[in-house]
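Lay summary. Proteins are chains of building blocks that fold into shapes, and those shapes determine what they do. In this project we predict the shape from the chain. Here is one chain we studied, written as its sequence of building blocks.
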Amino acid sequence: MKNLTPEQMKRRWLALGIVALAYVLSFFQRFAPAGIANDLAAAFQTSAASLGVLAATYFYVYTIMQVPTGMLADTLGPRRILVLGGIIGGVGSFLFGFAPSLDIALVGRTLIGLGVSVTFIAMLKLIAVWFEENRFATMVGVCMLIGNLGSVLAGAPLSAVAQATGWRGVFIGVGALSLILAVLCWLIVRDRPEQSAAQGGAPKFDRTVLVNSLLSVVRNRSTWPAILVNTGTCGAFFTFAGLWTVPYLMQVHEMTRPVAASHLSLWFGGFAVGCLLLGTLSDRLGKRKPVIIVASHVYGLVWLWLLSGVQLPVELSYAMFALLGVATSGFSLTWACAKEVNPPMLSGMSTSVTNMGSFLAAALFQPLVGWVMDLGWKGEMVAGARVYDLAAWRGGLGVAVFLALCGAACSWWIVETRCRNIWKPA
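And here is the predicted shape, written in a compact code that computers can read:
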């Protein structure tokens, strides 16, 4: 148990609440292009491949920053990187909102990815330091539930606001909120329970120790099943939900934009609730592996339905997307799996290495989906945006389905930790 004073107990909840709000913005920025894909295509007169690059720029930077963020979280502490990330992300959001061209939008999107890339790992580090070990998955689930409000807002609400008032003002407002949260992180967040408000906590930065620590995580064979499940399951989620879901449902399933955006929000909502449910279920069962196996296989089956293009009654399609969301959340247990097979002091690095796979997959496969779809494009245009037939969509969607099925297959190699750290020195 963490022996905390009443004041420390109050501080940990307040700090975690502020960081969770920053995580809401991170999720919103991640999936915002999905809700306004047609608006972006029309505003910048771009193809699916170029639109994929615009959305994936976030993931390029996010991927590159995962390992450095884990190192910084374990050395400099989460407080400093959260403040710096909030400032950079806010500036990027301003730039994206004011962007007159695709090139400027790419720069803004890059800064957004750079700024928000630190939020999740910093949040995991705070949970690992401030909360009990056997509550880790539950607390991550709570934060994911809160953070996913951002992805829900990036679906139907963003689409409705974009149609009513335009999408640019939304990103300008998000930029201002990001700067406010950066200030609150500096005032409230502390790296450790014993760190008082007056202490800066002199950071220690040893490159040799950092490199050796990274190598110990990467060389640990028990880490890799968690990495691969995260890469496949979350990679498919980010690749398709991050940009292509609304256009796919509109063009293949003949849904109106509000209905398609509602499906996307339901996917995000199911994912948010699922993170809390499956995290709590795993902690109470005292097991990780069975929960991940069941969730990843249900996930793969729903993806096969999407690939088929079979149209269902709207009530049933809503149910399928809710199920898809809950099943998607199974990958959230991979962070606990990675943390529990590595040294406790390297919790930031082990979770960041695991997290890197999904963002690398999104960075590579999101543009690939657009490129494959452009190969099958028949030249049809509506309101300045390209329209694709079922064959073209199946080609692009097949990329995400491949990732999902790979994640399900790798779940069988997850190392069961029974919700405790099982690492032992060699």
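What the prediction tells us: The chain has one domain: 6-194+206-413.
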